[in-house]
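Sample A.
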Amino acid sequence: MIETLPIGDRQYHYIQTENSFTQPNAQVCIKMIEWALEVTADTGKQSDLVEFYCGNGNFTLPLAQNFRRVVATEISKTSVQAARDNIQNNGIENIDVLRMPSEDLVKVLRGELETRKVAGLELDSCNFSTVLVDPPRAGLDSETVKQVIEYERILYISCNPETLRDNLITICETHRIERFALFDQFPYTHHMECGVWLVRR
């Protein structure tokens, strides 16, 4: 299915694949993306974004306008293919999507792992000052939290306030919360999406 979301002054077309993760409430999803665009608007066009858990590129595509380059990772084969198709179909040229666990990309960026999956990407030339994480309900594992806090700015999208709270206990030792938002993706249920924008202290 092709879903079109009007965001800002353009429309984004997303391939939504059966049995793959997606944001189910389109109207709330638009608000989430607009919020993410607003908080990252002043990051500077010479900085780059690294994204973990990118799915089909829901946040990746619109946020690319606020950065020089975006490198995103996702483990689901169908989501990675959808993200790559979405990038091409929307004519965006500054995004690379890798099919690998976030833990492996963490090791690559630290210089602890070499893999052909990043061949030719010249990651050493990137100025990754901002990281975007949109993890599953389990939140971020401890190793990814260690990597996340190495960045100047953190955009954390969470579908589980409890694991978000646990992660923020550690993250807030080095970063301060600048913006916080709640998004009711599932009205009349206890589920709540959160957006947190943090900057290094």
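Sample B.
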Amino acid sequence: MSQFDLARVKDRIASESAFVDDLLDEIGRVVVGQRYMIERLLIGLLADGHVLLEGVPGLAKTLTVSALADAIGTDFQRIQFTPDLLPADLLGTLVYNQKEGSFSIKKGPIFSNIILADEINRSPAKVQSALLESMQERQVTIGDETFRLEDPFLVLATQNPIEQEGTYPLPEAQVDRFMLKIKVDYPTREEELEIMRRMARTGGPTEVRAVVQPNQILTARDVLNELYIDERVEQYIIDLVFASRAPADYGMERLVPLVDYGASPRASINLNLAARAHAFLQHRAYVTPEDVRSVALDVMRHRVVITYEAEAEEVTSADIVQQILDTVEVP
């Protein structure tokens, strides 16, 4: 990319990314802290990738997603996944009109811009598959008609890590379809004090204003394609992914008995996209290795399958990804 092209892209990034600060400020009026989660949700939205949130109850996951939808003026649907949920409850179904003797289509809650699939692991495989197919194909078939889902379309799924009874964990192949898996942590002491002061009172929550229009998000997605990413950064992405598959080739022989399967090719694609989106949030026209490192754990932690030996040693997939990040040479 020439200096002229880089300058042009830089000017466009400065213009098109101006809404990011307004969006973060507006969500911050309602959500205390959780900046990490909010930025990762924006990365998923900008890079057109779905996000899996994992955290104990009460960490403002639903509030954050709802605030995000309100702040960009899009439709939002929260779906509580339960063991008796059916695919038709999610996608919609054919309804028979006895008076007219004909069927009509009743669309389900999936026909929205932002979907919160709350506790996705509480529903059986058929429902999970119905949702994940919609995520992948961006379309829904009801009867003999197929409907495209409107852009932007983002699925944010949550799962509770502390309850195992009555749950149906997502298979690795299905989890792989999520661009990011975010671990949502407890707030700091100062943040929790502010949360208590805000929420320990009667009355409804603060209303969120729409400060961004959906077409701005779609335009920003186009701009991501123009961000400059050097070949050395691209090679770094490939090195990280290949190190998860063949750690011995990168001097990490200790990881060999701990890794069952390394990250899939989706990891390479999503690392590239997420790093671009991270640079966009920083109002930069180019991607740095630090952008890649910032999103690598969220992109790869659910794509590295560990062995029983790793579980016995209490080594998690996140630990393995972190060791890869600490070992692979940064360009």
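B remarks: The longest helix spans residues 265-281. The chain has two domains: 18-199+209-218, 228-327.
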